[in-house]
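[09:14] KT: can someone run the structure on this one? pasting the chain below
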Amino acid sequence: MDPDFNKIVELHVNDIRKIVFSYVKNHHTMEDITQEVFISAYHNISQFRGDSSIKNWLLKIAVNKSKDYLKSWHHRKVQMTHWFGKEEQANKDTEETVLAQVRDRELANDIMQLPVKYREVIILYYYQDLDTNEISSLLGLNVNTVKTRLIRSRDLLKRRFDF
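[09:31] RB: done, structure tokens below
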């Protein structure tokens, strides 16, 4: 494999995993789709026009492959059991750390329960640090649609945390 492409993979693999997992909610499936994303990118790197960053191009491939998987027959037959952000507790030294981890997991679980159209904008905006214009381009949506979905998803999350 091209050493330059290896650098691209190393730089972006975690971002791709996160976005794929936000769709499929399964670690094994996430790894499979992530691999497909990079294989596809490798075979189609000559088609990359440079209209956006390589990261955005990879994210677009990841979103499309994830959506394709969700539409597939296989997905409909598989029960989703793993959740975004599920990590081992690395540090139980203080009560604050434990409470912060619990809060983060509850938030991650609530995000994962949002409908896909709201979940994807939250993940891209807050976890991938994309702005509304980049999200608009990536998802093929109007900027105002992205902004509206961000507002609605925040409202849904606020309601879940308030009650």
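[09:33] KT: thanks! The two ends are 52 Å apart (CA to CA).
[09:34] RB: yep, looked fine to me
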